[in-house]
Amino acid sequence: MVDSAETYRRSSTSPVETDAQIDWTLALAGGDGVRLADYVLQRFGRKIPKQYCALFAKRSMLEHTLDRLNTLAPPSQTLTVIGTHHEELAMPQLAGRSDHVFRQPASRDTGVALYVAIAMIKRWAPNAVVTITPTDHYVAPAWRYIHQIRSAQRVAAELRDKVVIVGVTPTEPDSELGYISTGSPILQVPSVKTVKGFVEKPPAEQAIDLAMQGALWNTMVCCGSVEALWSMARTAEPELIDVLDALVPLIGTADEDEAIEYVYRAHLPVGFSRDILQRAPEFLAAMTLDGVAWSDCGRPEAVENVLATRPMAERAITS
Fold this sequence. Notes:
With 319 residues, the chain is α/β, with parallel strands linked by helices. It has a single domain (19-318), classed as Spore Coat Polysaccharide Biosynthesis Protein SpsA, Chain A. The protein has twelve helices and twelve strands. It has helices at 37-44, 61-69, 87-94, 109-124, 142-158, 204-212, 226-236, 238-247, 256-266, 272-277, 300-309, 312-318, and strands at residues 9-11, 23-29, 78-82, 100-103, 129-134, 138-140, 163-168, 178-186, 189-200, 216-225, 284-288, 293-295. A five-stranded mixed barrel has the order 7-10-8-9-11. The protein has a two-stranded antiparallel sheet with strand order 6-12. β8 and β9 form a beta hairpin. The termini are far apart.
């Protein structure tokens, strides 16, 4: 059932409408944190999605993510996707960090939410380079991570037909993550490689083989021009993009909410990694995080491992 009680997009400032090539950041905070629900209940006394929890410091995972993103693009060019019932938790944390918020009418997995959000950016800044990131992952040190994501932004601005996806070298075979199989270096940017294939959540034996072959874990952080992101999804999920092509001109009009509701009524769930990245790897280029600790914090033991191993200096800075 689609909830139409109130406007799905809130913008505290007027979106900048321009044909210039500007940077936007897109934060994904719509997950309900099912895998970590019991752990969060034990630590914080209530079941709330992990992105809204201060797992490692006084700020939440969402706040840490947006503070990093705000060094890449200002809050006026930051859009955050939240879950249907997340407003009470999210809005205080988003204030001053993300001027634009898209509340999903219903749950349709990451792909639908992400591409409705990209449709909004396409309406405002069709030549933008968009940096997409989950908001419930741990990275450190932040300065080095930001430096490398800024490099990915520049590459995406240069290779406008490619989406630059950020990977990390596996420390163990993990069948809960996606794997990026890389090819040869791209001539224009030797630090970035072509992508031969993408496998989302492979069985354990295949995960071992992929790790041994040098495949990277998918962080789901990526940078791409609106055009490249749109073309990739058109190849993988053409029916979704056909509907979203009709949504774009309605953003900012009295028909925006009704059009968004139609998208959510018309489509079954679409996973960004499973249904788009895995089906259209030819649109991807891969960059490896270097010297940056990363965890998706998907299991209690992963969170506890971060708590046990992060440096004392980093604890002081992030507290």
